[in-house]
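User: Okay, second chain of the day. Same drill as before: sequence in, structure tokens out.
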Amino acid sequence: MVHELEVKNLHVNVEGKPILKGLNLTVDRGEVHAIMGPNGSGKSTLSYTIMGHPKYEVTEGEILLRGENVLEMAVDERAKKGLFLGFQYPMSVPGVTMQSFLHTAYNAVKGKDLTSMEFNLRLLDVMKKFDVQPAFAKRFVNEGFSGGEKKRAEILQMAILEPTLAILDEPDSGLDVDALRIVADGINKLRGADRGILVITHYQRILNHAPADRVTVMMDGRVVKSGGPELALKVEKEGYDWLKPSSTA
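Assistant: Same drill. Structure tokens below.
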């Protein structure tokens, strides 16, 4: 079976320090796969490495997207192949409207040449589906956005680009209950047979609203436990200590 994403024996250094230490992971289309783990376990390192951030040095292993090794691809090529990363702390881009940003990203990733009118019709249709007001498109990218609005902008970008594998790095970080539900609703609308979604999180709470099909727990750069949704509930209740190698639980 060819997985949408397969990470095999991945070792990654940051500034000479080993962070990922032989990590193995698969994500298939049609599933929401949650990665949990304490601070420093390597969750965000994994997401940035998959997308090709130059700070993260792969010393061993493979990252396969539908059987192709993405480590041989430039960042923009990975995006064109269907990879998407939603950042924990999205950057502001003063002077650039959401509409313009999304139009440029869409044409670049999809290899299209849609006119402004053609793209705007598409954008309005997607915004309606995701309950985003048209005025949102006229705002500068993340400029003055609340935490929830920044996450909504990422969900909107993902909906426009239609990746086959979307990685969301702590999409629940710093959100209140209402904003959390908005993000979870976006995930639920985007899940489907043509897409795999990898949700990186510390907590179970977002999974209450956007349930995961599979859950993987990372500690110290390795996978220590995999299972179904019940694993996230146990982590929420008992923490991570019982998963440490020295634990006899």
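The mean pLDDT is 93.

User: Thanks, on to the next one.
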